[in-house]
Write a structure and sequence with these properties.
- The strands form 2 sheets. The chain has a 4-stranded parallel beta sheet, with helices on both faces.
- The termini are far apart.
- The chain contains 15 helices and 6 strands.
- By secondary structure, the chain is α/β, with parallel strands linked by helices.
- It has 3 domains: 9-176, Rossmann fold (3-Layer(aba) Sandwich), CATH 3.40.50.1010; 189-270, no CATH class; 282-339, Arc Repressor Mutant, subunit A (Orthogonal Bundle).
């Protein structure tokens, strides 16, 4: 008999506390923020040139599950390095600009962080101490965490939980697996209800067209079905029950398999994201809520979404948003703000 480790009460308490950690509940919200670094853009361009389609990260953003962000200085650095990337990849730099402008940047929100906000999270300062060029991306990822940091540079971003070169790709693939798995689960759940839904829709259409007589006909058909079943020989009824049981068992197995894939992908995603800050600041809370919002928010709407522990006054919040308009935020309607702006590379 193999020895098994028995969970102690302390182990169980730690597991429950870990599962109830509110910082990880944010991972179920969509879209998940993801911050681009320059070296990841170079890797993605290489992938697109080789395969003829954008990388998975951009495609996932196109489908709405990820929301890509980039710090303005990181975008400037990327633009400056395009000639070098072009030489390495063996294509004209103008082709790389076209790919970025047409396929990438329409799905990237660019944020200009002032110096005061870059220093808001101590983890970003550790990134700055390792490499000043990675400071902008690290600061933005720290403020939006939990989020994906799309980088291959685990040496400079270790303070943000980046441990391997493939961690960003693993996180994106986990996100894609969650989307596929959740869709499979929804389809499996809907299969048993599909006939009833189809019948209901048909009867509703018939009722609208012919009146209450359609419901009478439905009742007669259902009663006839029960009568037909009761009149069958015992062997045939047993066969009907057996087939129904086999179908139910198969659906249950498929549901368990799909749900298991989703749970494994969620565990992997959790391991790949930049963890939440130990203590959320008002600035980080404001930026994250805007990063998760599918539409622009007014100061009042944003205040209603913020946790009371980090909620400033509506007047103070409105002043903060306006003070950083056209930099961190963009006012796309009167009093309505989004995080970041869209840019196109010149030339």
């Amino acid at each position: 008999m193999t020895a098994q480790r028995i969970l102690t009460e302390e182990d169980l308490a730690a597991l429950i506390a870990d599962a109830m950690d509110a910082s990880w509940l944010d991972l179920s919200r969509r879209p998940l923020p993801a911050v681009l670094d320059t070296d990841f853009v170079r890797t993605g361009l290489h992938y697109q040139l080789r395969n003829g389609i954008p990388p998975r990260s951009v495609r996932t953003a196109q489908h709405g599950s990820l929301r890509l962000f980039m710090e303005y200085d990181t975008l400037t650095e990327t633009e400056a390095r395009l000639p070098k990337f072009a030489d390495q990849l063996g294509v004209p730099a103008v082709d790389l600009r076209r790919v970025l402008n047409e396929d990438w940047l329409p799905h990237v929100d660019v944020v200009k962080l002032p110096a005061s906000l870059r220093r808001a999270d101590p983890r970003a300062l550790q990134v700055r101490d390792r490499d000043i060029g990675d400071f902008p991306a690290g600061a933005l990822a720290a403020l939006l965490s939990p989020c994906l940091l799309l980088t291959c540079n685990y040496k400079h971003f270790g303070a943000l939980g980046v441990r391997t070169r493939s961690q960003a790709v693993d996180g994106v693939m986990a996100m894609a697996a969650i989307n596929i798995g959740e869709m499979q689960v929804r389809v499996i759940v809907m299969i048993p209800a599909a006939p009833a839904m189809a019948v209901g829709a048909a009867v509703k259409w018939a009722s609208d067209r012919f009146g209450p007589a359609a419901w009478v006909i439905l009742g007669v058909l259902i009663g006839g079905g029960f009568y037909w079943y009761r009149k069958q020989p015992p062997e045939r009824r047993e066969r009907v029950r057996q087939v129904a049981g086999e179908v139910g068992t198969h659906l249950l197995e498929e549901y368990g398999t799909a749900a298991g894939r989703v749970n494994r992908a969620r565990v992997l995603l959790r391991a790949c994201v930049v963890p939440s800050p130990r203590q959320r600041t008002p600035v980080s809370a404001i930026m994250r809520e805007l990063a998760l919002s599918p539409e622009s928010l007014s100061a009042q709407q944003l205040a209603d979404l913020l946790d009371p522990s980090v909620r400033p006054s509506v007047a103070g919040l409105r002043a903060f948003l306006r003070a950083h308009d056209n930099m961190v935020f963009a006012q796309v309607r009167r009093g309505g703000f989004v995080l970041g702006s869209h840019y196109q590379l010149p030339g």
